[in-house]
Amino acid sequence: MEENSKNAPMFMQGNEALAEAALRAGMQAYFGYPITPQSEVMEYLSAQAKKHNAVVLQAESELAAINMVYGAAGAGARVMTSSSSPGISLMQEGISYMASAEIPCLIVNVQRGGPGLGTIQPSQADYFQATKGGGHGDYRLLVLAPSSVQEMADLVFDGFKLADKYRNPVMILADGALGQMMEKVTMPPAGSLPYTEKPWATVGKPTTRERNILTSLHIVPEKMEEINLRLQDKYRRMRQEVRSEQIGVDEAEILLVAFGLSARICQKAIELAKEKGINVGLLRPITLFPFPTEAIAKIVPNVEAVLTVEMNAGQMVEDVRLAVNGKKPVYFKGRMGGMIPTPDDIVLEIETIAEKNRITQV
Amino acid sequence: MGQVLTMEGMEIVYEKPGTLTQTPFHFCPGCGHGVVHRLLMEVVEEMGIIDQTVGVAPVGCSVFAYNYMDIDMQEAAHGRASAVATGIKRVLPDKYVFSYQGDGDLAAIGTGETIHTVNRGENILMVFINNAIYGMTGGQMAPTTLLGQVTSTTPFGRESSHVGFPLKITDLVAQLPGAYYVTRQTVHTAAAVRRTKKAIEASFKYQMLKKGTCFIEVVSNCPSGWKMTPVEANVWMEKNMLPIYPVGDLKVPKQ
Predict the structure, then answer these.
(1) Inter-chain contact A101–B56, Cβ cutoff 8 Å?
(2) How many whole angstroms separate alpha carbon A59 and alpha carbon B83?
């Protein structure tokens, strides 16, 4: 990609837009292992690495890749890895270690259908894994959910920024469709994300400070509890980063809650429902952790029912139910295994809900 | 009786390197780990590269290395030390980076990382402590456990028909084009300690040539795991381990 000084819109694939954005965001190292549907990320970076003076290394496995991320990010570099569902499972041990040792990095999961080797088609079945920890121990990642190629680029900048701000791994939870599809995208300018000081990084101990140690081992339980309490406090502070987008919620009788690709499909469903005389709004979480609980709770009194749409068996719906807190009925519509709900599927669900809740159709 | 010893009129000929912390080693009496820790830190101090050195300590008895080595260090997940070291070295190519790994870490759970790190010729030093047993977890079989050797998971001795053969991973590593210097040493005699220190010195110097991986196996002991006194352990090691893991250079740089 030639440097585009005017930042004119370009037509790009999601995976490539993410990779280009990472270079523009000053990514210094990338470690990964090929897996469909996100291999274009490393392919793109491999071709561009020299020009940007970035390290791009194909590891022998996702295990090695995430531990290379640990080492490089621990040495103070801005580091990214990307993979898809089975590969992300392999990385969980390393992610847990990084959360505990407080090593910032950006991890991209371009989800595919599972469980197991599953399929290569898009899915959102890793919601639990991404937002509830994923590996062992009490920890959280900041999780960002793009729903367009534009956001595949923009959220890379936000991801690196948040990782450094909280000294925590950040995950971009995309899916195979967002990775593969092509859309118009305006690239953020290169060099617009400054580097932060990392006095904790292991770069060689000068005489002016004590040695830096990055570890997740604290054999004395009192100390381990103290670190857990500090981490939990950090996760609570992350709540201020919560972000969501709301479309047509003011007049809505039914509120849709959906993230990523599902939210794009919901937008079409809202148009179709309106034609049928049902006012439907959408709340799209952009941060999945922290989850926009308050934003949902605020809308709930004004709607008759809530419908969560996901490409899984119903995962985010649990967080939606917590937000709604029994005040209104919460319904779920999902497809699994790489299948995508159509706008018509969702409209059918909306009509059923409208009937059940005696919502008057205009 | 009542004699008071003072430093007056005495000359310091040997002392603890400043690169070791004041924390007492947790290692069992007679264990080789403490000696290798000290040698590494002596070399770092003598070369004056404290501010340019980053170490990696993974899981096993090696995990507490950063309690003793007064340098910047990262703790790695079990088996992943050389991947972590790769990450560090790739973004700090002009710094000295070493991993310090036991036999379970380097030759069982981390075999893939070991082979591929050396195959890429990462310009790091990998220090491999082979004591043929899992010391930290209480004396289970290691990949390098000898045939017939009794451990807590081979209570009747290691049988090749069941759990395979002692893995000579250093011999494997020496075959890889990415390896620059591969040697096998011990630290159970004064002469052996001096030879191992020379190997460590050479490896740190070689790092700056950027010609490939340096790999030092130290055949060592585990008196607690082997259920022997330190003296018995060293005798047993010489008699039983050195025939399988002979001391010497496996690959030396071409002059």
Answers:
(1) no
(2) 9
Side by side, the strands of the sheet bearing A142-144 are A55-58, A29-32, A79-83, A105-111, A169-175, A142-144, A287-289
Whether A67 has its CB under 8 Å from any CB of chain B: the answer is yes
Q: Chain A closest CA to B111's CA: distance in Å? A: 11
Chain B positions touching A227 (Cβ under 8 A) are: none
In terms of residues, how long is chain B?
255
Counting Cβ atoms within 10 Å, is residue B4 exposed (0-12), middle (13-18) or buried (19+)? exposed
pLDDT at A358: 79
Map tokens 């009129």 to a residue: B9
Placement of tokens 């309106």 in the chain: A274
Scanning A22-41 for CB atoms below 8 A from B yields 28-29, 31
- Which residues contact residue B224 at a Cβ distance below 8 angstroms, ignoring those fewer than 6 apart? B28, B31, B135, B139
- What the block records as the tokens of A123 is 């899915």
Q: What is the helix (H) or strand (E) element at residue A213, kind and residue range?
A: strand A213-214
Among B137, B143, B139, B135, residue whose Cα is nearest residue B114 = B143
What are the b/e assignments for A100-133, b being 16+ CB within 10 Å? bbbbbbbbbbbbbbbeeebbbbbbbbbbebbbeb
Place of tokens 């969560």: A308
Calculate ∠ Cα B42-B45-B46, nearest 5°.
80
Q: Give per-residue pLDDT as tens, A92-148.
A: 999 999 999 999 999 999 999 999 999 999 999 999 999 999 999 999 999 999 999
Taking the CA of residue A294 and the nearest CA in chain B, the distance in Å comes to: 38
Pick the CATH number of A243-356 from 3.30.830.10, 3.40.50.920, 3.40.50.460, 3.40.50.2000: 3.40.50.920
- Do residues A154 and A21 make contact, with C-beta atoms less than 8 angstroms apart? yes
pLDDT tens per residue across span A289-302: 999 999 999 999 99
Find the DSSP H helices in A167-259: 176-180, 221-237
Q: Are strands B72-75 and A142-144 parallel, antiparallel or unpaired?
A: unpaired
For each of the domains in chain B, give its residue range(s) and CATH number, in order of start: 33-246 (3.40.50.970)
Phi, psi of B204 (to 5 degrees): -65, -40
Pick the closest to residue A266 from A284, A253, A251, A250 (CA basis). Answer: A284
Chain A residues near residue B89 by CB distance under 8 angstroms = 71
Q: What superfamily would CATH give domain A10-196+216-240?
A: Thiamin diphosphate (ThDP)-binding fold, Pyr/PP domains (3.40.50.970)
Q: Are B213 and B119 in contact (CB under 8 A)?
A: no
Q: How much is the average pLDDT of B246-253?
A: 98
| Domains A10-196+216-240 and A243-356 alike in fold | yes
Tokens encoding A194: 């400054």
